[in-house]
Amino acid sequence: MPQSGSTVSQRESSSFLPVTQPASAPASPVGSPVAQLLSTPSNITLDPNWQAIKSTVRERNAAMFNNDLMADIYFIVGSPGHIQRIPSHKYILATGSSVFYAMFYGGLADTKEEIEVPDVEPTAFLTLLRYLYCDEIQLEADTVLATLYVAKKYIVPHLARACVNYLETSLTAKNACLLLSQSRLFEEPELMQRCWEVIDAQAEIALHSDGFVDIDSDTLQSVLGRETINCKETILWEAAMNWASAECNRREIEPTPSNKRQVLDSALYLLRLPAMSLEEFANGPAQMGMLTLEETVDLFLHYTASNKPRLTYPTKPRVGLKPQTCHRFQSCAYRSNQWRYRGRCDSIQFSVDRRVFIVGFGLYGSSTGAADYNVKIELKRLGRILAENNTKFFSDGSSNTFHVYFAHPVQVDPELFYTASAILDGAELSYFGQEGLSEINAGCVTFQFQCSSESTNGTGVQGGQIPELIFYGPTSEDQ
């Protein structure tokens, strides 16, 4: 994390550029020394008494940031076509980085006046210098990965930690696979774990994202071999085919079935084709030309024959994620004419202390015998609908809860309040919860509840409808 007094600015974006891709940067200042000084952020140093108006060491150091005045080393940063010449001061760099200290003051100190840094983007290098000079961290989505790279290159752990924190807060299903690939490169296990949580819970969105086809082959294998990834095997097959097509294009070869099989190599055998239904296999992989005739016949025999052949593909379905449930009432009851719907909204607000993914709600049904219900469920944050579903469920007349799900799990971040709502249409008299709690520990997650102004049918913290929140979240095994 940044040291005391530092600031972090962020601009929201869901995409990240690989660190090897240089960002465009302004050309290096040219011309006379005065013109160069005027072009720097610290042109106040043109005043011969500039030190007098800087009351702190931090302010005086900040005046030297990207400033030719007293510069004793220059960095030629960036790849050809994107090079920037950046002035600096050895003393300041050496006090902030052990790598710079060894470079300038160690036993094999470099005496050159210019140092070439072709593997770093100029914008990222300037972000590093701004931190070393000014104790400020300014991160943006399109350069944060490059900044993480340079922070690790020069061993500046506080800046690296700020980059990781930024990436964690910016993490979504659409960028999780690409970030996983980068976090493996940077050896950031905590960020990797956060990526896996998102990919496991929102696998279908993650695998269909644009960035998935850009991951490296090792990351692809880790995804296809993942036991807890929560989606149908057909989704993984489609994702692997999309990646193979993109890889063929990167290698400038035609994406034919044989070429796609070649670029997938051993990753193909991580797909659990026997875990598909016979219909899914017959209408998909069996007709795409990716499998040999022998493999296709053996797989059909696996589905239909009593004496099954030995397969080169794993036959055991993936475990996936186990849904967890937060029960917010200690008991339920029914009383004649006391709990009716009539199209009104039952709603409750909640927050969590750890990131989870809401799968759906448990609802009470009829207290007067079996009945069908139409229901609309919603999950909202500050009035914005994050997910909704219009569906039906059958109530058998018991006090059991009946689960209703969203199309995809919805990410819920800690320390923010969300609103869960349900509007039911069906048998009016139903069971309802009572003895509700405002704080509940469900596994490793603490839920807090408060009443919602949107609730027009009587549901609140103490009693009512929406007795359960169904979610994917951390378990004791993850600790």
How would you characterize this protein structure?
With 479 residues, the chain is of the alpha+beta class. Helices cover 30% and strands 23% of the residues. It contains 15 helices and 17 strands. The protein has helices at residues 33-38, 57-63, 90-96, 98-105, 122-134, 144-153, 157-169, 176-186, 189-201, 203-207, 217-224, 233-250, 257-264, 278-283, 293-304, and strands at 8-9, 73-77, 84-88, 114-117, 137-138, 324-327, 329-333, 345-352, 356-364, 371-381, 384-395, 401-412, 418-426, 432-436, 439-442, 445-451, 468-472. Strands 11-10-13-8-16-15 form a six-stranded antiparallel sheet, with no helix packed on it. A four-stranded antiparallel sheet has the order 6-17-9-12, with no helix packed on it. A three-stranded mixed sheet has the order 3-2-4. The longest helix is centred in the middle third of the chain and has 18 residues, at 233-250. It is flat. It starts with 7 loop residues before the first strand and ends in a 7-residue tail after the last strand. One of its GO terms (cellular component) is cytosol. Residues 22-34 have a biased composition (Low complexity). This is BTB/POZ domain-containing protein 3 isoform X4.
List the helices and strands and how they pair.
Layout: E1 8-9, H1 33-38, H2 57-63, E2 73-77, E3 84-88, H3 90-96, H4 98-105, E4 114-117, H5 122-134, E5 137-138, H6 144-153, H7 157-169, H8 176-186, H9 189-201, H10 203-207, H11 217-224, H12 233-250, H13 257-264, H14 278-283, H15 293-304, E6 324-327, E7 329-333, E8 345-352, E9 356-364, E10 371-381, E11 384-395, E12 401-412, E13 418-426, E14 432-436, E15 439-442, E16 445-451, E17 468-472
Parallel strand pairs: 1-5, 2-4
Antiparallel strand pairs: 2-3, 6-17, 7-14, 8-13, 8-16, 9-12, 9-17, 10-11, 10-13, 15-16
Helix pairs in contact: 3-4, 5-6, 6-7, 8-9, 12-13
Subcellular location: Cytoplasm
Keywords: Cytoplasm
Main location: cytoplasm
